[in-house]
Design a protein that fits this description.
Number of domains: 3
Oligomer: single chain
Strand order of the largest sheet: 1-2-3
Structural class: alpha+beta
Shape: flat
Number of helices: 15
Distance between the termini: 63 Å
Number of strands: 11
């Protein structure tokens, strides 16, 4: 192994130092991400992404040895922009924004300290780090709905009668439900990650790379629909003896493995000779002159990046300290009955929305001439990690609920005291009951039902100062 060129040692050391410092400064985000890798099988590949990225950079070592690292001060601008993104993610309680911002900070710091020419050489390995961020949970409802649509259409096409109610399917031989594990997110994440890596390694042309990446995105979605249909058919044809237990998951992974094997086999037919890129000509480098001309800019770049990286954390800590002056322990009381509606202590049903981490909450039932309603309010003043209103874990019914299921949602608008309020109308079912549920958010003085709009309102800088005031 050839030694590291002298003119590379200081910039390389500065880059490694800065990446390590970013991981230390934003260690709360790193800790949350690693925990998610370890506890969620969908994102377990995250442990491999940094190793793969390092290996891809190592493959470029001969080409990199011919390049002259030179700090690029223009990188400070996008670095500052990612700092702002992180702060917005922190204030809005959106961990995925913080995770993407941290990866962006690491990538931009390398570009700033090593220069544009070096960055171009290792751009893909650096950008590949973004696959370490757990993503896709927001796609689960849409993917579940597609899987249910596909399965029902395939069953009817093959002459099997099926009755669908939301994501619940009823066949003459038994009942099925499309739950979170049936969405195919695991297959999609795995296929996309491997597809992008394979496209980079196997092809040179942008067109072939793009086509293979598109295929690795679409194929698992369609394959998951076929997988669900085949499992339902196995259960139906076997009288609900096969594909209804652990073998359900085994059949799914075996089928997915075969589909991926076929995808990469087809992709290999169009493989192009692809070797690590190298510079067209070796540079005439004078290490001594490089050291004299770049020592101060490199040191200044490191200092600027380090200071900028601290700003979001220091500002977040400042807000948290101000927030700590306000009382966090408080209660809210349900409203009294009005217009002939009388409060009734017993709950209407045993159902309760799955909203965790609220600072305060209450549930109250009301009756009026034989009609009954229940009101549930969760209050998320002074949000923090694990106590956030808008998160993938907060929903009306979880996919693991064995008693209740969400069979459909629509948008409605109602008028209350002359004010238009948008709401999400859902129908929930259990074995013996049906519930009509209206649900909405109240954020920064506005009624909203779109979670993304709610997140934007939560991250609104104008509201940050308001969070520093007592309730």
């Amino acid at each position: 192994m050839k030694p590291i060129p002298t003119f590379w040692r200081l910039p390389l050391l500065a880059s490694v130092f800065m990446v390590v410092m970013l991981l230390v400064i934003y260690r709360s985000v790193v800790g949350f991400t690693v925990t998610l890798w370890a506890t969620n099988e969908t994102y377990a590949h995250g442990f491999l992404i940094p190793l793969i990225s390092a290996w891809l950079i190592w493959r470029q070592r001969e080409a990199l040895a011919r390049l002259q690292p030179k700090p690029n001060a223009w990188g400070i601008l996008p670095f500052a922009l990612f700092c702002v993104f992180w702060e917005l993610g922190y204030q809005g309680g959106t961990i995925v924004v913080q995770q993407y911002a941290l990866v962006g900070l690491m990538v931009i710091s390398v570009w700033t300290l090593l220069g544009t020419e070096v960055f171009r050489q290792i751009m893909f390995p650096l950008l590949f780090l973004f696959f370490a961020v757990p993503f896709g949970e927001s796609f689960i409802p849409a993917m579940m709905n597609f899987t249910a649509d596909f399965t029902v259409a395939a069953l009817r096409l093959t002459g099997i009668p099926v009755y669908r109610e939301g994501n619940f399917l009823t066949l003459p031989t038994g009942n099925w439900s499309v739950v979170e594990a049936c969405s195919g997110l695991r297959y999609l994440v795995a296929s996309m990650t491997l597809g992008v890596l394979y496209a980079y390694l196997a092809y040179r042309s942008t067109k072939r790379r793009a086509l293979f990446i598109i295929a690795s995105t679409l194929v698992p979605i369609v394959a998951n629909g076929l997988r669900a249909y085949m499992i339902v058919m196995l259960g139906h044809l076997s009288g609900m003896r096969l594909a209804v237990g652990v073998d359900h998951l085994i059949y799914g992974w075996v089928f997915f493995g075969l589909v991926m094997l076929l995808l990469f086999w087809v992709g290999s037919l169009f493989r192009e000779e692809n070797t690590p890129a190298s510079s067209t000509a070796a540079l005439n480098i004078n290490p001594a002159s490089f050291a004299r001309s770049s020592k101060v800019p490199l040191g200044l770049s490191v200092l600027l990046i380090f200071v900028l990286a601290l700003v979001p954390q220091l500002y977040a800590r400042y807000l948290d300290e101000k927030l700590g002056l306000a009382p966090l322990a408080f209660t809210v009381s349900p409203p009294a009955g009005a217009d002939s509606w009388q409060a009734e202590p017993p709950p209407l049903t045993d159902w309760r929305p799955h909203y965790l981490g609220s600072r305060a909450s209450f549930a109250q039932s009301y009756v009026n001439r034989g009609r009954s309603i229940s009101l549930f309010v969760a209050y998320y003043r002074h949000q923090s990690q694990g106590a956030t209103l808008i998160t993938s874990g907060n929903m009306l019914v979880t996919s693991h609920d064995i008693f209740w299921g969400n069979i459909g949602e629509t948008r409605r608008d109602i008028q209350i005291a002359g004010e238009n309020i948008p709401l999400n109308e859902a129908i929930l079912r259990s074995q013996n009951a049906r519930l009509l549920v209206w649900q909405w958010y109240w954020v920064d003085g506005q009624w909203v039902i779109n979670p993304y709009i709610a997140k934007v309102l939560e991250a609104n800088p104008e509201s940050w100062m308001g969070r520093m005031m007592p309730p």
